[in-house]
Amino acid sequence: MSGDIASTSLGSTNSSLAQLAQRLGVQWTQLAAASARTKQKKSELSRALAGLDSADTSIVAFGSLARNEFTRGSDIDWTLLIDGQAASEHLAIANKIREEIAKLEEKEPGGEGIFGKLSFSHDIIHQIGGQDDTNANTTQRILLLLESCVLGKPDAHDRVIGNILGRYLTEDRGLWYGSGPHKIPRFLLNDIARYWRTMAVDLAYKQRTRGGIGFGLRTIKLRISRKLIYIAGLLSCFSYEVDLDPARRRAIFNGDGSLAALAHLKNVMMRPPLEITAAALLLFPELDAHSAKLFSAYDEFVGLLADDEKRDRLNTIPYDDLRTDPTFKEAQQISYRFRDAVSGIFLNQDNLLGQLTIEYGVF
Description:
It is built from 17 helices and 4 strands. The protein is mostly helical and 363 residues long. The protein has one domain. Helix 4 links the parallel strand 2 (78-82) and strand 3 (117-120). Helix 6 packs across helix 9 (186-209).
């Protein structure tokens, strides 16, 4: 989940992404521009929506705004998250939020009906797995953890995040009593992996139900920004092994208990996906060549989406023209470079990230 965007912008000394760029001697200009646009847009929205939340409700944004990658063509995916007693005025408040966002001439949320309305904490927290854990419920839960930011009061959002993570950690018996050499929260990891596969399956579903409209843009997003969400989820689950020295890890799992484990994981996941990824890769200088390729490809991807003409083309290419369209071929090459960098990091047994991915992220 994204925290304070100002504290994680590319120009901030607190930004892991900025530190990595400095070490590599590169500049990711498109990411820097998107970060600046994000900060401005978040400020505009917070002012416009002031007073529409409470201690029991948070206005939560997802998507590129939460990832710190907002471009002119980005839409605003949002929900009014309710963590308290249901009230009749909640629907009116949600309608008012929709009106205020429309005044800023922002695009409507996606057409699947998951965003742009009310959401309630009970199902998000309690329905993990089973037939009542719908695609919409899983999407909201995983994106709250890995791709969300608050536009206003954070109280409800913070409580829901804590309760979600509390369930994943306290109910994971293997994490606390398993005999394996690593401390990996597999209950959480399996749900993140399930969501990643759901996004991949839904690409085919949307192709069929929408007659191929928008398939080009959705495909490239799946290969890059959606894959980044999964990467950030993997790294969050690996963080006990990657971030903590053995003494601190033993102290948490042999003495301090679930509250300390939750505090660590929550601190990791308070950052946007690019920051989670950069913070982990800062610990592996031997992977700098792959890190440079990964973030450079992502920078190109954000630049492509910031180009109105190219973005519109990706969203309107007829399905039968994808193989020959120059814009799609350009986007495809960016996705290949991103894929190769990801493989060099996460499918390479010569480094800890690769070892953990092969052992826990595949089977």
